[in-house]
Amino acid sequence: MSNEYPLQYDVVVVGAGNAALCAGISAKEEGANVLILERGPQHKRGGNSFFTDGAIRTAFQNLDDIREIIPEMTDEEAARIQIPIYHAEDFYNDLMRVTGGKSDPQLAKYMTGQSTQVVKWMQRNGVIFELNENQSFEKDGILTFWGNLPLKTQNKGVGLIEQLNKRAEELGIDIWYQSRAVKLVEENNQITAIQIEQPDGVVTVRTGSVILACGGFEANKTMRARHLGSEWNAAIVRGTEYNTGDGLMMALDIGAQPYGDWAGCHSIGTDCKAPEVGDFSKPGDIYKKSSFPLGLLINKEGKRFVDEGADFRNYTYAKYGREVLKQPGGMAYQIFDAQVYPLLRKEYLIEEATFVKADTIEELADMLEVDKTQFLQTIREFNQAVQEGAYNPTVKDGKGTAGITPPKSNWALRLEEGPFYAYPVTCGITFTFGGIHVNTHGEVLGKEGTPIPGLYAAGEMVGGLFYDNYPGGSGLMSGAVFGKAAGASASRYVREKTQSAASQ
């Protein structure tokens, strides 16, 4: 392979996950000649998107919006589902609520306002959506959805990546595997080329623009320790091993503005026996454990440490992972009884799930690495604190506790019906919140706040959206929205530059 390629690509996209593929497809739709770079081999393509369960948060005006996205839904099926309407303003308010009002208002309004049209654009480009039944409960023959997350991609993240790659192939987009971008090249203060490390050596590809969409630094232990803290060395990496901050470092090296919550990340409670990095042979987010609002979280000391029922799981799970990491041994147990066991999400029922089961709570305590006396006291105090009220897992039912700390604000049932179950969980890091500053066109901003000509970013690299916490399903939506915007902007930039040069 030669060390120099001729100028043959209008747009080079770094990364091959949801954001990158949406960027490449969008740029191609605008007429650009596009190259996508995947650092891993073909059988490990797709970045973190490959490991998601495919849930994607989007606004919708009515059920007709959902049916346009899922055209296979029949009238009979539509009559048996109940989905609360979720306007763009609701999405925006949820994002602002869970981030404590810190999310960049311009970026937040753009993502939430574009979400419906972008999901429809994805569907037109071959992405198949279906109802996210993990976010529903059935009662009297009606499937009632909760948490404003009724959509997911068919066959989870695996299906999303397959479908987007199929569309990229149909459009004639080139994809290079085992191609790690290592350096952006500038001439006259604009991007003109990119250096790529391949098995046979480093090559330089000249290009009109570059879109960085290759993830955060969650798989880089050195950067995790520096920005998040040394305790994060113990966290399991839930996704790809290739998200080591390459794109962030390349952008910062040429003057991009760091932006957002560099000390924060998306992390969840995940099975203690989960692999240290994402296993491409067992994708689909199978190790997460997200039914904790229905039970109790108890550490090795036998104590509770969070309000399990503070909100629906998709508004708390991304911050409770770090709370588990803070506990002795970096782990805790999710405890359930027979009353709620039938309501647990599917990942609790698969053969990979680690758990212990006992007929009595005393027997369960004997099987766990806990302070048994304190564990049993915690259960007794919790049971005594549970207030009367109607239990309803489809809404925040207000059925809580009184007189204990932390409280359980919703879905509090006495833990008293055997058999009892304990699922050991640790912290799994998903993605980092810190990124670089982009505008709503996907343009990367330099330290003076002006765009760096020819440089764009999308996906996890967009800083300023998520702080401390995250509304479930927003990551895929952010990737698609800013990927589509970056692709269109990069293509237009190259076209206008070419037209300007031709006219001179």
From TrEMBL:
Gene3D superfamilies cross-referenced by the UniProt entry: FAD/NAD(P)-binding domain, Succinate dehydrogenase/fumarate reductase flavoprotein, catalytic domain
Coiled coil: none
Keyword Iron-sulfur: no
Keywords: FAD, Flavoprotein, Oxidoreductase
Superkingdom as given in the UniProt entry: Bacteria
Transmembrane domains' residue ranges: none
Gene Ontology molecular-function annotations: steroid dehydrogenase activity, acting on the CH-CH group of donors
Cofactor: FAD
Domain FAD-dependent oxidoreductase 2 FAD-binding positions: 10-474
PANTHER family per record: FAD-DEPENDENT OXIDOREDUCTASE 2 FAD BINDING DOMAIN-CONTAINING PROTEIN, FUMARATE REDUCTASE
Database matches in NCBIfam families: PRK08274.1
Protein name (database record): Flavoprotein subunit of fumarate reductase
